[in-house]
Amino acid sequence: MNIRVVLPGHLRNLAGVGHEVDVDVVGAPTLESVLDAIETSFPVLRGTIRDQATQRRRSFVRYFACNQDLSHDPPDTPLPDAVIDGREPFLVVGAMAGG
Amino acid sequence: MSGVRVLVGTRKGAFVLTSDGKRKDWTVNGPFFAGWEIYHLKGSPADPNRIYVSQSTGWHGQLIQRSDDGGKTFAPVGNDFRYATVPGTHQWYDGTPHPWEFARVWHLEPSLTDPDTVYAGVEDAALFRSVDGGQSWQELPGLREHGSGPHWQPGAGGMCLHTIIQDPSNPDRMFIAISAAGAFRTDDGGKTWQPINRGLKSQGIPDEEAEVGHCVHHVAMHPQRPQTLFMQKHWDVMRSDDAGDNWHEVSGNLPTDFGFVIDVHAHEPETLYVLPIKSDMEHFVPDGKLRVFRSRSGGNEWEPLSKGLPQEHVYVNVLRDAMSVDSLDECGIYFGTSGGQVYCSPDGGDNWLPIVRDLPAVLSVEVQTLS
Question: pTM of the prediction?
């Protein structure tokens, strides 16, 4: 299943991609599986969204979709229907922090 | 024709500055990795085209980049830094136990002989090694597992392993330094380590002469004198002539003995350079004057070097990895400031010229001497 993903600027530069990418999610479309798919498609992003050892979200990264903050939801949380059917993208966002 | 390549890490990217042997006219390339903190980048002594880069941000963590063409292009390599064994705890600022957590790579030290082997000093303090050009990293856990580890504590910038020195005469011997644990030495290729802090005195810890706990800022060695080490501690400039077993102070007539950088002339093992900073509370040069101090006697007697450097209204800092020397016949000295200036002296410190004036805050300066 293809999921639309929007990455923050630094990660777009690292992955060499534009504003939005499609990733192929294997299995049920959840927070964890879409992050797995991002890292499979773009191995250079391993460690930049989640810690490689703990798989915990990095503190200054947020996950948004359909105007909702999914950052604190459990990894097995299903993605919203509008993301699954392609009407909305899944957003990986660099949190507003620092100057 | 001979020349130099100056590798500059800044708060917002990396820059590569090149010149011929005269070191008068410069080409400035960059920023590379714009917007990322580049704590350190350094070239391989065995292959000057091989350069390793530590790239990080608070948002997206740590990456390592590698160049195989002398800094023209870079590509990411491995960034999985996992402690080899259960990390345990060290002291937090308030004295309570705190879990060991990887934060970033402070320093990359390529092998003296193998371009694919490189060491990484990280925060929270540990030493990693890659033998495949940075693709994968393995911790040398004997250091972190030293019995004193639970008593190590972070300096203001974090508990970082920031200095790695290889002994060119003995491949099994290496020196490292940690803020704020102190200096350590291995004589068996990194399996076991011993603290080498005898003679250091630090007023900021309960036992001023404790075996560990000292805030060592930087250590330097001349490759022809691997028994002799020079140290800029939080306060005090120190010297050891027995590979760190014993230290004595050589601050002498410095206007202040607080500072971060220390380096040794490429051809004169008794000629040292430091850049005094006013104090631990005021991280800028004293008296509003940017001055390098040179000792030609291995310490104690110091002379200010200021020709070409601004001498009024200067309030910049120079961080621990932000000074380097080249090895051309007339040794060049380089340093970068928190104000984004990179200065070069092509004549051992007598005269200085700015290479660039307005980079982001400089975190590190390394020089490659090119034949």
Answer: 0.96
**Domain assignment of residue A99, yes or no:** no
CA of A96: which chain B residue's CA is closest?
B59
Residue of B nearest to A47 (CA): B61
User: What would the mean pLDDT of B40-54 be, rounded to a whole number?
Assistant: 98
CATH of the domain at A14: 3.10.20.30
Alpha carbon of B226 to those of B93, B120, B229, B237, B368: distances in Å? Answer: 34, 21, 7, 18, 21
Q: In chain B, what percentage of residues exceed pLDDT 90?
A: 96
B82 touches chain A (CB under 8 A): yes
Candidate from A22-31, A61-70, B97-106, B201-210 with smallest mean pLDDT: B201-210
Q: Mean of the pLDDT values across residues B290-295?
A: 98
User: Which residue among B76, B80, B102 places its CB closest to the CB of A14?
Assistant: B76
Q: Other CB atoms closer than 10 Å to residue B292's CB: what's the count?
A: 25
Interface of A with B (CB under 8 A): 8-11, 14, 44, 46-49, 51-53, 58-61, 94-95, 97-98
Note whether B212 and B152 are within 8 A (CB): yes
B323 bridge partner residues: B335
* The pLDDT of residue A99: 52
Superfamily of domain B3-370: YVTN repeat-like/Quinoprotein amine dehydrogenase (2.130.10.10)
